[in-house]
Design goal:
The protein has 492 residues and is mainly α. Helix content is 82%, strand content 0%. The chain is globular.
Length: 492
């Protein structure tokens, strides 16, 4: 436990650098595919993935988090959980196959049948690597996890772009999504050198399955509420409208997912080992929370100010309508940056029941906003979505920290420094590009405005807000030696 701080910082920066690489890979692949494919191709595949994507939450069944969160675990328990994951993955594949004609009828689109059938294969393959990934995370081997993640997405990008160049159309998006799953599972098995044994009864996995079930239900509710908008738009406004809305949503979601993933997995692994030390737990959580907000806020401001330039550079001129949607969705980057880390707090403390109740209320509010905005098209949905999350953010934060060692005042104090720094940087950047950047091409305006924003933001945060020491400690901690094979805790 005494080297937990050094290991956490080292693992956090490994994860952060890997997520930066993932961000570039995903954006780069998106830039190429957006120019090789048409909006209706993306919309067609989205009609399937918005429904079958929820099954990916079930194939994990929350059991990876149960493995990580458990103070101690045996080989028999992990082996039993592995076979549970396999059974769930096989069941989801069968359900997906049965769902294919239903989606064809719902969307009135016969091409969806074989898209759904091929998507089903990924469930069983992915389920086979769930526990192997959890064991690496439990051991905080984030360098290995980062390598596997980057390699898998690189393979997916190569396959997807190669198929698109070969004229495969929307099938290239299927290759782009399935190839990383196969690569990742194979690499996880090689990295852990762990072979599951046969399942056993009476080894104490019942409580872990119950914990995982509540975690899964949390994720399912969150997934449904954040994807219902795509189902409704696809049903009411067609594949082209969904394709444009989906790309704007993806541009917003990529940085949000990467930033939360960069800190979240490491923070949860560390916090789960500090459940009996409230002072250290609070200190670790607030530092992680501060780091997420420090990364999220400039992204939010940049997305709002330079939506036109971002869409033109990343997607191309054919996607101009996506810029309006990107700007309308920009507030959700900040809102979810504020509330998503609170799940670490609740999960690490075993308060999954509270997190589930919060997720249900949020899902109801967000779903209602989609129906309110739907008559006004994708723009109406985007505006209503952002408005609903803004109204809910303070009650969400207060409920999440109620009767924990972290107070609402602690969250406001941590958030205030990056918040005011980002506002100041954004104001100056907007003024500069308004005065001097109109004659520049889109890429020039984006570089000028984005560079000014981030430089001023860093200056404000480090020196005016006096956060230099905090980030200096993080940076120096990154270069400390990570745990060797002898220093690491046992795999199980």
């Amino acid at each position: 436990m005494q080297d937990l701080k050094a290991r956490t910082i080292h693992a956090g920066f490994v994860k952060a650098w890997s997520q930066a690489g993932m961000f570039l890979l995903r954006i780069g692949t998106l830039m190429v595919l957006a120019r090789l494919l048409e909006p209706k191709d993306f919309g067609l595949v989205a009609m399937v993935t918005v429904v079958t994507g929820v099954f990916q939450l079930f194939q994990d069944a929350g059991l990876s988090l149960a493995t990580v969160q458990r103070p101690s675990i045996t080989n028999e328990q992990v082996s039993s959980l592995f076979w549970v994951n396999i059974l769930v993955g096989a069941g989801l594949a069968v359900i997906s196959l049965a769902l294919a004609p239903v989606l064809v009828s719902f969307y009135h689109e016969p091409r969806l049948f074989w898209v759904t059938v091929l998507s089903a294969a990924g469930f069983l393959v992915n389920a086979a690597g769930v526990q192997h990934g959890a064991l690496l995370q439990r051991q905080m081997r984030f360098t290995a996890l980062a390598f596997i993640e980057i390699l898998s997405f690189s393979v997916g990008g190569i396959v997807g772009i190669g198929m698109a160049l070969a004229g495969c159309g929307y099938w290239s998006l299927l290759g782009y999504s399935i190839a990383p799953t196969v690569t990742s599972t194979a690499c996880l098995w090689v990295a852990t050198h762990w072979i599951p044994g046969r399942p056993r009864r009476g080894v104490g996995v019942g409580s872990m399955i119950g914990f995982g079930g509540q975690v899964t239900l949390n994720s399912v509710i969150g997934y449904f509420s954040s994807n219902l908008d795509k189902m409704l738009i696809g049903r009411s406004w067609g594949s082209e409208a969904l394709g444009i809305y989906g790309r704007a949503y993806q541009l917003i979601n990529i940085p949000r997912e990467n930033l939360n993933s960069a800190v979240g997995l490491v923070a949860l692994s560390a916090l789960s080992r500090l459940q009996d030390e409230p002072d250290r737990f609070k200190n670790y959580f607030l530092k992680g929370y501060s780091l997420v907000l420090a990364l999220v806020l400039p992204v939010t401001i940049a997305s709002a100010l330079y939506a036109d330039e971002i869409v033109f550079v990343v997607l191309g001129p054919a996607w101009k309508e996506a810029a309006v949607l990107l700007r309308l969705l920009a507030p959700t980057v900040l809102i979810f940056g504020l509330i998503n880390p609170l799940r670490w707090l609740n999960f690490a403390l075993g308060m999954v029941g509270r997190s589930l109740k919060i997720a249900i209320v949020l899902a109801f509010l967000v779903s209602a906003s989609f129906f309110i905005g739907l008559p006004h098209g994708p723009r109406g949905v985007a505006f209503a979505y952002s408005a609903a999350t803004i109204l809910w953010v303070i009650p969400h934060m207060a409920w999440s920290v109620h009767k924990t060692m972290v107070s609402l005042g602690d969250l406001f104090r941590v958030a205030s420094r990056p918040f005011f720094s980002a506002l100041a940087g954004g104001a100056v950047a907007f003024a500069l590009t308004s005065l001097a950047g109109r004659s520049l091409p889109a890429l020039g305006r984006l570089l000028l405005g984005g560079g000014t924003l981030f430089c001023l933001y860093l200056g404000m945060l480090l020196f005016v807000m006096k956060q230099k020491k905090f980030y200096w400690d993080l940076v120096t901690g990154m270069f400390k030696r990570g745990p060797s094979a002898e220093d690491r805790p046992p795999l199980i």
